[in-house]
Amino acid sequence: MVFTKIESDNIYMRFLKWEDMSIITPALTGVFPGDVLPDENEQKFFYYQANKQNEDLFSKRALQEGDVGWLNFAICLKSTDAPIGYCVHFYRNTEVAYEVTAIIPSERRKHYYTESIILRHRFIFDTLEATLSKATIPVSSSEINTSVKTTLDSLYITNEDPAYKTAHGTYRKTIITKDEWNTWINHSDRSSKKSLSYNLIWS
Fold this sequence. Notes:
Elements: E1 3-7, E2 11-15, H1 21-24, H2 40-55, E3 68-77, E4 83-92, E5 95-103, H3 112-127, E6 132-138, H4 145-152, E7 158-159, E8 164-166, E9 169-177, H5 178-185, H6 191-194, E10 199-202
Parallel strand pairs: 5-6
Antiparallel strand pairs: 1-2, 1-10, 2-3, 3-4, 4-5, 6-9, 7-9, 8-9
């Protein structure tokens, strides 16, 4: 038994499908210099890898020592079922690394990014029972980084390494434990985030 949807109020996540690729590729707009987007062959390669990795996902249980793999999700609107972005995670043992979440330009600044982050942490901590989450977060500001920093800076406060510079800006590697996540989401200032629904559909 594996899940088919991870639902919140306005969005849900499911495994990527090939027909998603041409729709969600523009989610990378603003990520790379010159707005260079993956071509069809690159999309095919990414999907082949993602599909194979998703097929290897274990059945309905928590993470445990010895588990290694990837989770590749499309982010979809509940109202229309339209894919509006994607997210990728890597898990090893009971730790999950947050690799990327990207939303197509037309759906940015509508709070879907924040909702997807809440959904993601509930899934890995409440359902997969991960003990630790890792992330790479931008330090430098840019148009596309605003939502990322606004959502994650208060959540991820413990850095693993000093900040480092790349061609895309300055970043920091950071971690959060399950207890720290619970403290963050239960804070009185985040009642609207905590009230977002969380539901898994299994098949």
